[in-house]
Amino acid sequence: MTTLIESEEHKSLREAVAAFAQTHPHTLNAEDNTRLWQAAAKLGYIGVNLPEAYGGGGAGITELSLVLEELGAAGNPLLMMIVSPAICGTVIARFGTDEQKREWLPPLADGTRLMAFGITEPDAGSNSHRITTTARRDAATGDWILTGRKVFVSGVDLADATLIVGRTEDARTGKLKPCLFIVPRDAPGFERRPIDMELNAVERQFELTLDDVRLPADALVGDEDAGLLQLFAGLNPERVMTAAFAIGMGRHALAKAVEYARERTVWKTPIGAHQAIAHPLAQAHIDLELARLMMQKAAHLYDAGDDVGAGEAANMAKYAAGEACVKAVDQAVHTLGGNGLTREFGLARLITASRVARIAPVSREMILNYVSHQTLGLPKSY
Question: What residues form DSSP beta bridges with 134?
Fold first, then answer.
């Protein structure tokens, strides 16, 4: 029942975050975004999933996704919550050394430091097995030397370091295996270039170049032989949080449309009285609520330690939320007509933003592939 009915504690958290988010102006620039991030962190919202021993809230992805959803519903989504506390914070908390936890978890929790996450490459989008960023050891010093490229890395300019997915050679098999490395923003040979996006978002996207970036031995996160386990420990929360991001955005758009449909009067009747307007909005609400249920299931499974079950549910939640968000935004814009494309109502920018949850961090087609062969047992097409 925990995934169906929220506890009083969760209801109180939801109400508190919603009230907090409403008191802040929409984050339309980096300065507003930073102020909102720091204010949210001060209240314990940013690090709610991180261990109490390191200054976090000691809760889980369930609570963190709730926070992001409510921020988004108020029109103030913080995209880097998906990356910094959810992916990077989770991976370091679960697999990092004691020193890495002491160095990174407290500032990630209190908002004084951020971390980005680099996995996608120009020639390795959905296929992580084709990642060509490699890490080799310097036999003389024990240092790691990273070489490669990454694309569509969010918020690198805001981050103090980037958690990079590279590959090392297995001495036993000669095959490459994934490993995670903490790369400081000022590391020599680590360069970033902004990607020119037609996306109105505070958090910019970057292409990264790693040209023989030398890192100390302790830059490796966790066990060199547990790369896939560690990688998916971060990717499942990423999918849950992307679902929260999408649901919050969809709720925000829907709320604007409902308010407009109540007040906009044509021929002496509010347009919301007409079923051609009312029914699509009701359907959008239903789809968002259904997506939220799957998101909550995925978060609860993850927090309970069921990585396999969480993987299936998180992919489904991300798919459902992405679809529901796009439909909600589209219907909201359509409800407002020409007003839906004005800056005054702020819906037009969501037309592009809502597609992000469909595309990233994994496409809906790859999720359908996953469900086809992992859940239904059908043969792979690739």
Answer: 147, 167
